[in-house]
Amino acid sequence: MQGAYLVTGASKGLGRSIAKLIASSGHPVIALARESVDLGVTGAELATLQPDSITVSCDLGDREDIADATTIIKSRFPHLAGIIHNAGTIHPIANMLNVERADWARSIQVNLIGVQDLTNRLHSLLGGDIHTRITTISSGAAKRSIHGWSAYCVAKAGLEMWAMCMAEEGVNENISAISIAPGIVDTDMQKDIRNADEISFPSLPNFIEYHKNGELTNPDDVAKTLLPFCLGNSGENGQRLDVRNL
Fold first, then answer.
1. Distance (Å, rounded) from C-alpha 41 to C-alpha 36?
2. Nearest CA-CA partner of 81 in 146, 149, 12, 129
3. How many domains is the chain partitioned into structurally?
4. First-residue to last-residue Cα distance in the chain
5. pLDDT tens, 189-246?
6. Does 235 fall in a domain?
7. Do 98 and 147 form a contact (C-beta atoms < 8 A)?
8. Confidence at residue 1, expressed as pLDDT on a 0 to 100 scale
9. What distance in Å separates the CA atoms of residue 7 and residue 15, rounded to the nearest whole number?
């Protein structure tokens, strides 16, 4: 059996596309996401592509869920060839001085702290004699402030630095890490953005126009570009990449 890859947020969108491509290349995939019908559909699709693939239900906003998920993964796989940290939430979309503390904190937990927690708990499966590639899915929001997206911007900026720190500290353990911004992809997150309140999110008309003008990219197409980087066949340790430049 080839080395397994863990893909978070794998029930739909870009995560599902990446998971299916990795399974098609012969690698078992651990598709991790919150429990849903979509996760079951993804699991069925992956099973036809690579029968050793599994799904694991996990809410990255819940520490107990993360602990339970890692226990399952460690019981099934001796090593991870890669982790693709794709799961994320755009919520809350709100003015930062008005947003509820719990909502802001959950965003940081899901988008950043959960990444560290999940990876840390899986340390025994990473690197060693066989290389592990860790890929974080970033965003242009990591590089610029966007009105109404304070939690998301802060988390994504932190996630890029997290990847750089992982690249620095993981090199002696045969672990490499990169971050990739995928551009504006046609996913449910974009639907959530288009349903935002313009008072809290003044850029709303721009995102409506992106969709109207067909400027959103297809998740399957983006996944094809990302695949060699996720598999560790391309990209230098510690790099920050933008899919639009690849």
1. 9
2. 129
3. 1
4. 31
5. 999 999 999 999 999 999 999 999 999 999 999 999 999 999 999 999 999 999 988 8
6. yes
7. no
8. 62
9. 7
**Chain position carrying tokens 């990591």:** 142
Q: Is residue 191 part of a domain?
A: no
Token couple for 145: 């402030």
Do 166 and 177 contact (CB within 8 A), yes or no?
yes
Rounded to 10°, the helix 150-170/101-108 angle is 30
The amino acid occupying position 58 is C
State how far the alpha carbon of 148 is from the alpha carbons of 108, 111, 151, 206, in Å.
Answer: 15, 16, 8, 14
Q: What pTM was computed for the model?
A: 0.97
Q: In angstroms, rounded to a whole number, what is the distance separating the alpha carbons of residues 50 and 195?
A: 37
What CATH number corresponds to the domain at position 21? 3.40.50.720
How high does pLDDT run on average in the chain?
Answer: 97
The whole domain housing 83 covers 4-93+100-183+221-245
**Residue 9 belongs to some domain of the structure:** yes
* Position 199 in a domain: no
Cβ partners under 8 Å of residue 167, min gap 6: 176, 177, 178, 237, 238
Euclidean distance between CA atoms 94 and 149, whole angstroms: 7
